[in-house]
Predict the structure.
Amino acid sequence: MSRAHGRKSMREALAPAIALARGGFPLIEFNVDEINGVSAELRGHAALYDAWARNYTAGTGGATPGAILKQPDLAATLESLAESGATLLHGGALGRAVVAHLHSLGGCLTLGDLERVRPVWQEPLVASYRGLAIHVPPPSCEAFQYLLTLRILEGFDIAAMERNGVAYLDLVWRAIRLAAGVRIADNNPTPERLAHMLSDGHVETLRARVRDGVPVVGPTEQWTETPGAAAAEGHTTSFSIADRDGNVVCLTQSLGSVFGSGVVVPGTGVCLNNFLYWADVNPRSPNRSKPGGPLPVCVAPSVALRDGRPVLALGTPGSYGILQTQVQALLQHVDFGLPLQAAIEAPRARLMDGVEVVAEGRFAPAVLATLGGRGHAVETLPGWTMKVGGMQGVAIDPATGAMTGAADPRRDGYVVAV
């Protein structure tokens, strides 16, 4: 991306990150909770704990608000990356350090595995909603569930409904669960199969199912033989950026679990993710991962265009809830006209397997009670919870070019203008 679209050298681009790693930053409550929450678990893994504790807690194993987290090893690694480029990992010194450390832990990654990695430019998947052309990554990314949900909902006059009322929530939850079922039945479809999923004819059959009023029962996470199994919590981040030159970037990236695998490669400051556990390895699953095959990822960074010009970047963490959160925030902004910050702050819900729905407590109790009679088993959560994501977005006024940033208070998001 730097070579194809950037004006800065890699050293210039990485300079802020290098400075932050070397000089450090003060820990806020979210950071402290995450460090202290995982410390006890990692303490039980002697081969991992010391390197992790040195890197993130100066060897103490704990953190306090306001403590400065400095990562000099990571700063040095980023400086080497600025000089060497991607070959530092894919066949270079960093790659050798990663492989050697994993072998010492009994791992099987080889330098050849890293050398065979090749980035691939892909054309985005696009669907229309209320005049917006919404772009998301194509399969093996599972963002097509987000687009399919919007395609279903475009057949209904949402703006005429009471915002966050019974009819609206029942409609949206039913559409989300139906789209999730389609994605779970085939989570890495061929282009032909995907075209059918998003086609007018197939979408109309799903709209009819939404209208029939019969409860929709089914999984929302992965294919499973035990419906209702709890999903593992993951740790993902997302950011949305727009600049004065008209460039827009929406990026969602995941470590998998908190601190990924907990494996910090000594002397590098690099903590390895464990997103591979998202792979479906059940031999009876229609989505069983195969050796050498693509790994489906449940993220949905999106950029929306109107008349060919970008007007909205929207992304969130939240595991499989990502594919639901994106829908709910977009509807608040596009259909009900809320400013982007208000749309992100609006109460949300997350549909789990079966008929379970976990909903923020800011929905009207009477509304949630009525929805219980429509086939939704609603559990009320606190008024604000990161279980329903942590969205970041940028809206761009097509007439004036004015940009509005928005950040989710459910996590440690911020808006910065420079």
Q: What stands out?
A: The chain has a mean pLDDT of 93. Residues 166-185 form the longest helix (20 residues).
